[in-house]
Design a protein that fits this description.
By secondary structure, the chain is mainly alpha-helical. The chain has a domain of 74 residues: Arc Repressor Mutant, subunit A (Orthogonal Bundle), CATH 1.10.10. It is built from five helices and three strands. Strands 1-3-2 form a three-stranded antiparallel beta sheet. The longest helix is centred in the C-terminal third of the chain and has 16 residues.
Length: 174
């Protein structure tokens, strides 16, 4: 390992280290700079500051896979941002026209189970004396939220409005 001037800033030491050793993994680089400056590797404040300084420094460029190098060695990468290195596979959307209801339809096989006398006697299936059998009403009116619903006219004429307000005032006068 070459001699490093411990009085230099951490970024200057990182630049010198990368010049001598080439492209480096960020964790290795942070660890080596910490060793040179005789810092603890657990000193997250200073190591975070070094990482921040490296990202803001014009000398470094991110090469992908957590590797950093000097821009002078990677002129083709100097103007790329982090999204350049994300190689996600393209997502193909299904057209709504291609989706058929039959694709999601599952045929149900109806199998009637034979009920034996021992099943009828199971305590698990008996209702307690204070329990009632729950009946679900299938004839619940369903309100639609479609745009085709009737439009309710909520416009009041002046007489209706005055009558409502008079009743309202009378409630508070009492």
């Amino acid at each position: 390992m070459a001699k490093f001037d411990k009085t230099k800033s951490m970024v200057e030491i990182a630049v010198q280290y990368v010049k001598e050793n080439g492209k480096q993994n960020i964790y290795t680089l942070l660890s080596e700079v910490a060793k040179i400056k005789e810092l603890s590797e657990n000193d997250m404040d200073k190591l975070s500051q070094l990482y921040l300084d490296m990202t803001l420094n014009a000398n470094f460029v991110y090469c992908g896979n957590d590797e950093w190098d000097l821009k002078e060695n990677n002129l083709d990468l100097w103007d790329k941002d982090g999204s350049f290195f994300n190689k996600d596979e393209p997502y193909e959307e299904e057209d709504d026209d291609d989706i058929q209801l039959e694709d999601y339809f599952v045929e149900e096989e109806i199998v009637e189970a034979e009920v034996s006398e021992s099943d009828e006697d199971d305590e698990e299936f008996k209702l307690d004396e204070d329990e009632e059998e729950i009946v679900i009403d299938d004839h619940v009116k369903v309100y639609s939220t479609d745009d085709e619903d009737e439009v309710v006219d909520l416009d009041f004429d002046d007489d209706d409005y005055n009558k409502i307000m008079d009743d309202y005032e009378d409630m508070y006068d009492e």
